[in-house]
């Protein structure tokens, strides 16, 4: 019979998410995130009830091509995914330092409270209100002050209740660090990635897709039928770099994204040396911001531009026409994969940030021509690092 003191059990505060065949654990008490393959998750699931780790290790001894299952059990224990049945996680957490997410969007309310907004993945935007006393605690989270000190100032129960709420995957506004953030100054490689990471993916396994490996996903119906608000599409659902830099920005030398694109092409010999007529095809034009700013930049260089956008989405095509009104830009509805196009019709083709809009398929290792034996061992460990 196993000694009860050696038993471990899966933490009840774990949430699972899935993306591209990988599984992610989010710890709702700490904000820690672990990435792994589904077979590694089976090791953790073996501890659904209090279980001797030696029994689980024996069960999975030959499951990972020579990688000892004790490696994964140790990592799960280190990241509080496994715990002793009688453990009180708050004992560990009181010694830790809360860190605010860089991604937090909030504002003070007239009553002295706060409003936080979240929008993770496909989930709708949500507002989370903090009362004045809670906002006062939030205001003192500086990445340096441990929870014990905040408890001395505001009371243990209010502080821990707020942490439980803000760390949870539904909000993700706070992470817990073992040490103050100043410890990582000059030691950036030592900083755990989870402190600056979020979890936007769908829950696993229920909402992770359920497609058979090799099934091709065609995005054309989504563009043609689902997109119904062009501004919302890029402000909230599909925020691209070109959208973020649609206005001039110091990071691009004072240029817009389209202007910087033209400068980059010129520097790399991607434009004719002598200005003249220039026929451009853009595949998928977003809101038309790249086309508008690039056309203006090309005209400033003396080119006689004729710019055509080929667009799948009627709603995005409408926005493109409005944005490019008065410019030599033509918007056509069509599919670049199926519509016939004459050869030599264009001098330059722009396909900016549209790879994710092409048909795709999720493949098994075998279908991708990868050897499972070569992917075991270190690859499994890397998933958990």
Protein described:
By secondary structure, this protein is an alpha+beta fold. The protein folds into 3 domains: 4-87 and 377-384, Outer Surface Protein A, domain 3; 92-202; 217-360, 3-Layer(aba) Sandwich (Rossmann fold), CATH 3.40.50. 31% of the residues lie in helices and 18% in strands. The strands form 6 sheets. Strands 4-3-2-11 form a 4-stranded antiparallel beta sheet. Strands 15-14-13-16 form a 4-stranded parallel beta sheet, with helices on one face. The two termini are 34 Å apart.
> Can you give the helix content as a percent range?
25-40%
Largest pleated sheet: 4 strands, antiparallel
Tally of domains: 3
CATH fold descriptor of the largest domain? Rossmann fold
Q: Report the C-alpha radius of gyration, rounded.
A: 26 Å
CATH H-level superfamily of the largest domain: Vaccinia Virus protein VP39
CATH architecture of the largest domain: 3-Layer(aba) Sandwich
Name of the top-level CATH class of the largest domain = Alpha Beta
Count of helical segments? 15
According to DSSP, the number of beta strands is 17
What low-confidence regions span 5 or more consecutive residues with pLDDT below 50? 377-385
What structural class do helix, strand and pairing data support? alpha+beta
- Major beta sheet, strand line-up: 4-3-2-11
Overall pLDDT confidence:
89
Tell me, what's the shape? Answer: globular
Strand content: 15-25%
Q: Report the span from N to C terminus.
A: 34 Å
Itemize the secondary structure elements and their pairings:
Elements: E1 9-10, E2 14-19, E3 22-27, E4 33-36, H1 38-45, H2 53-59, H3 69-78, E5 82-83, H4 89-93, E6 97-100, E7 105-108, E8 114-118, E9 126-130, H5 132-139, H6 147-154, H7 156-167, E10 174-177, E11 202-203, E12 216-217, H8 220-226, H9 230-237, H10 241-244, H11 257-267, E13 277-283, H12 289-300, E14 304-311, H13 314-323, E15 329-333, E16 348-350, E17 360-361, H14 372-375, H15 378-384
Parallel strand pairs: 13-14, 13-16, 14-15
Antiparallel strand pairs: 1-5, 2-3, 2-11, 3-4, 6-10, 7-8, 8-9, 12-17
Helix pairs in contact: 6-7, 11-12
